[in-house]
Design brief:
Number of helices: 5
Number of strands: 0
Shape: globular
Low-confidence stretches: none
Number of domains: 1
Distance between the termini: 33 Å
Largest sheet: none
Structural class: mainly alpha
Helix content: over 70%
Amino acid sequence: MMLEACLLVLLGGFCGGLARFFVSGLVGRRIGETFPWGTLVVNVSGALLIGGLSGLARAAGGVFAGELFRDFLFVGLCGGYTTVSSFSLQTLNLALGGEREPAMLYVILSAGLCVLAVALGFWSVVAALR
């Protein structure tokens, strides 16, 4: 059972990491990379996704397609997709580059939008399943 869980987390992390690479790169190429918009989009959309998955789990009475499936989705896919370490480094780089206001804006937008996105994902799924 532990080996299966590890393999599902590994597979989910692989898929999530690839998705992060493509989404962040696409956003960066479209909008520009002077501000870390790609990472912001990844983190907010990842919060929306994990919120929606949490809503599904709650609506299913805590049973959501089995524990192994949750390991794949929550730990692997969402964990591999979101980028808190990149967010932290980009914030530091903005601050070290003398861009203190954009660094603070990035922290506020990231935290605020991710909390809103996780709540939106959670409650929209819960409401849709009622």
